[in-house]
Design brief:
By secondary structure, this protein is an alpha/beta fold. The chain has 9 helices and 8 strands.
């Protein structure tokens, strides 16, 4: 690991608005599960997660646009989170937190129905079929989201991957989810949408390369989703 990354890891360990899974490994530490509104944010606003948030540009933009919502960016890579966390300090955003953790363990850090909405922006599509369970819209992960989302909660995906978009559409059908909105090409079909056209660094690069950006919003079913 480079010196720069080590410095960033050290810095984020001191940031009060960054929570790390390593902070909760001993029996004396209480995980934030069920305490996000009361103790972490100190309000009763809705909670929105951005999974695999990377540098946190989407997380920060959501926080700017929705000051009465609590935005949590989640990623396992601390050096990336450092960039978003530093910007949040510079921009004095008090409705943003970052959590360094694996998405697989979401239910350990959020209580049932504690989350109002989940954004998944440009996740790894895992193009090899053998890795399909690692896709953040696989039934494995939808089952995890069910454990933390409100019954009325929504999942939103933005991707440049046709493979992931098609896969997600099929999984939605298989698992009884409900599609609420589906856009094959954001910049052809709804270029004036202020929310969908928030651009991450990755998205800017994808657009320069002429890639199509797709979007789907869906609701999870009431019955438990089984891994398939």
């Amino acid at each position: 690991m480079g010196t720069n990354k080590l410095q960033r890891f050290e810095e984020i360990s001191e940031f009060e608005h960054v929570l790390e899974l390593t902070d909760y490994q001993d029996q004396h530490s209480s995980k934030p599960k069920g305490r996000w509104r009361a103790d972490i944010f100190g309000n009763d606003y809705p909670i929105i997660l951005e999974l695999a948030c990377g540098k946190g540009s989407y997380t920060l933009e959501l926080a700017h646009r929705f000051p009465r919502k609590n935005i949590v960016g989640i990623d396992i890579k601390g050096a990336r989170i450092w960039k978003g966390a530093t910007r949040a300090l510079d921009e004095e955003l008090d409705n943003v937190r970052f959590m360094r953790m694996y998405v697989d363990h979401l239910y350990e850090y959020f209580a049932p129905a504690e989350v109002d909405e989940i954004w998944i922006t440009f996740p790894d599509p895992y193009p090899n079929g053998s890795d399909r369970d690692n896709r953040l819209t696989s039934s494995k992960f939808l089952n995890i989201y069910q454990k933390v989302l409100k019954s009325s909660g929504k999942v939103r995906l933005k991707t440049d991957s046709d493979l992931l978009f098609d896969f997600t559409t099929k999984i939605i059908d298989k698992t009884g989810c409900e599609i609420l909105e589906s856009v094959d090409s954001i910049y052809d079909e709804c270029s004036s949408d202020q929310l969908l056209t928030i651009k991450t660094d990755y998205e800017k690069r994808h657009l320069q390369q002429g890639k199509t950006i797709s979007y789907i919003k869906f609701k999870l079913p009431a019955n438990p989703i089984r891994d398939k």
